[in-house]
UniProtKB/TrEMBL annotation:
Keyword match Transmembrane helix: yes
Family affiliation: Belongs to the MCTP family.
Domain C2 intervals: 1-59, 93-204
Coiled coil in keyword set: no
Highest rank taxon of the organism: Eukaryota
Recorded name of the encoding gene: Mctp2
GO-annotated biological processes: regulation of neurotransmitter secretion
InterPro entries, A to Z: C2_dom (IPR000008), C2_domain_sf (IPR035892)
One Pfam family in the UniProt entry: C2
Compartments where found: Membrane
Name listed for the protein in its UniProt record: MCTP2 protein
GO MF assignments: calcium ion binding
Length: 204
């Protein structure tokens, strides 16, 4: 019930500098669970923004009244990685020792924001639901932690896909929940949901 909403949400996107990406933003109005209406869209050219500073942008909504006020910072990303299973970042014993020392009790207050990090090995899925008429699916896996999101590649025409990827996330809140969702890629259409599991960090 507001024409001037304040969300105060922060989202982290992992952007690779060799790509020329646009940030697409949509504003929606929701009357109830069934009725939604698009209130406007706007776009930000990420490559045109100055790096290592916070950019305050007022973005007018295209073909609709109103504007969005956003703070966007393009900064070097630390602690986030995607790698193959054979080059797992924690595979080296000396690196493990450095990590153990970095997060030992005596170093707890050196950097309050550096809580730690989570490493997830996504191996495979088994007996997925068939989403295509052919009796197969084109599954990929999405991992979300807080507002961080990473995903695997798609394995086509397979109900038992093997991804064998290692994902590393920096932890910002020990009460966060790791959500792992499997989708079926469906060309230009939105992906179909195949299943989900939620793992609280405190249970690890």
């Amino acid at each position: 019930k507001s024409a001037n909403p304040q969300w105060r949400e922060q989202f982290d996107f992992h952007y690779f500098s060799d790509r020329k990406d646009m940030l697409d933003i949509e504003v929606w109005r929701k009357d109830n669970k069934k009725h939604e209406e698009l209130l406007g869209t706007c776009h930000v050219n990420i490559t045109a923004l100055p790096t290592k500073q916070t950019n305050c942008l007022e973005l007018p909504l295209e073909k609709h009244p109103g504007s969005l006020l956003m703070l966007i910072a393009v900064a070097p990303c630390t602690g986030v990685s995607i790698s193959d299973l054979c080059v797992c970042p924690l595979g080296d014993p000396s690196e493990r020792q450095q990590i153990s020392q970095r997060y030992c009790i005596k170093n707890s207050f050196r950097d309050i924001k550096d809580i730690g990090f989570l490493q997830v090995k996504v191996l495979k899925a088994v007996d997925l639901m068939a989403a295509d008429f052919s009796g197969k699916s084109d599954p990929f896996c999405v991992l979300e932690l807080g507002n961080d999101m990473l995903q695997t590649h798609t394995v086509y025409k397979n109900l038992n896909p093997e991804w064998n990827k290692v994902f590393t996330f920096p932890i910002k809140d020990i009460h966060d929940v790791l959500e792992v969702t499997v989708f079926d890629e469906d060309g230009d259409k939105p992906p179909d949901f195949l299943g989900k599991v939620a793992i609280p960090l405190l249970s690890v």
